Amino acid sequence: MTYKIEVDRNGCIACANCYTVDPAHFEGDSEGKSRVIGGQSNGTSTGTFDDPKIAEAQAAESSCPVNVIKVTEEKQLSRYKNCEHEHPASLAFSPS
Ligand code: SF4
């Protein structure tokens, strides 16, 4: 399963919940703010993963007291990414 993790670092309060709950996807920087392992470290830290560990990332998302973590499955995107046909807007990917 492919999924994307985003952390809005501007809103992070460095509580350490996410990287305590899920050290496989998150780490703290020198100020204790979260970033996605292997991801960017500017305003928004983002990483895309393809493994069966989305539940751990979602647990970290739920643990964030200021809701700055977003975990999005990209299963539907990958299904249509190589298709050259037009699709109605109802089939467009929309994260829940
Ligand atoms: S749980 Fe939220 S506020 Fe706490 S370190 Fe992680 S991203 Fe920052």
What does this protein structure show overall?
This protein has 96 residues and is an alpha+beta fold. It has one domain (2-81): Alpha-Beta Plaits. It is built from three helices and five strands; from the N terminus they run βαβββαβα. It has helices at residues 17-21, 54-63, 75-80, and strands at 2-8, 26-28, 34-36, 44-50, 69-73. The protein has a three-stranded antiparallel β-sheet. It has a two-stranded antiparallel ribbon with strand order 2-3. A hairpin with a 5-residue loop joins strand 2 and strand 3. The protein is globular and about 35 Å long. The mean pLDDT is 86. Iron/sulfur cluster (SF4) binds next to helix 1.
List keywords for this structure.
5 strands; two-stranded antiparallel ribbon; 96 residues; 22% helix; Alpha-Beta Plaits; alpha+beta; binds iron/sulfur cluster
